[in-house]
Design goal:
8 helices, MerR_fam, mainly alpha
């Protein structure tokens, strides 16, 4: 009976590929064990624990370059680093939430997404003889290019089509 598990078994245990395991060896995150008499590397409990720690920290958003020194640090440094990772993730979540909200506002035609100059032009259109329909169409999201929804306007009003084309070409 042999002690330890093979690289494939260790990788499966941690939920990673053998290629990832070899990368961890290459960057020094997990020590590469010596080969046994049959030529296989055998990973013991200490290597498996380290592997799971590396994988867990990487999955939590910690850069690989920071993981090795962190695992080798004292408990206070480790705890402080985890607080930093949590803060970074919280900031990233806020960023992504803001982007999603912007997309929702864009889809609803919210004019606050337009540059101030464009809003001023839209607000001044009625004084130039444009109808309320023309103003609404020029400021609508269906008039702006949206790569995920290439909607073609069915409006046949020449003024509105011109406004859409003008607005689309200025973006």
């Amino acid at each position: 009976m042999t002690d330890g598990v093979t690289i494939g078994q260790a990788a499966a245990f941690a939920g990673i590929t053998i290629k990832t395991m070899r990368h961890y060896h290459k960057v020094g995150l997990v020590d590469e064990p010596a080969r046994d008499s049959s030529g296989y590397r055998r990973y013991g409990s200490a290597e498996l624990l380290r592997l799971v720690q590396v994988r867990t920290l990487a999955a939590a958003g910690m850069p690989l370059a920071d993981i090795g020194p962190l695992l080798d640090s004292d408990a206070a440094s480790f705890a402080a680093a985890l607080v930093d990772v949590e803060q970074h993730l919280t900031e990233r979540i806020a960023e992504l939430t803001e982007r999603r909200d912007t997309l929702h506002r864009l889809a609803s035609g919210d004019r606050t997404l337009l540059p101030d100059r464009a809003v001023a032009m839209l607000e001044g259109m009625p004084t130039l003889g444009f109808t309320p329909y023309d103003v609404q169409t020029a400021g609508s999201p269906s008039c702006s290019p949206r790569p995920w929804s290439p909607k073609v306007s069915t409006n046949t009003s020449p003024t509105s089509n011109t406004l859409c084309k003008t607005r689309a070409s200025s973006n």
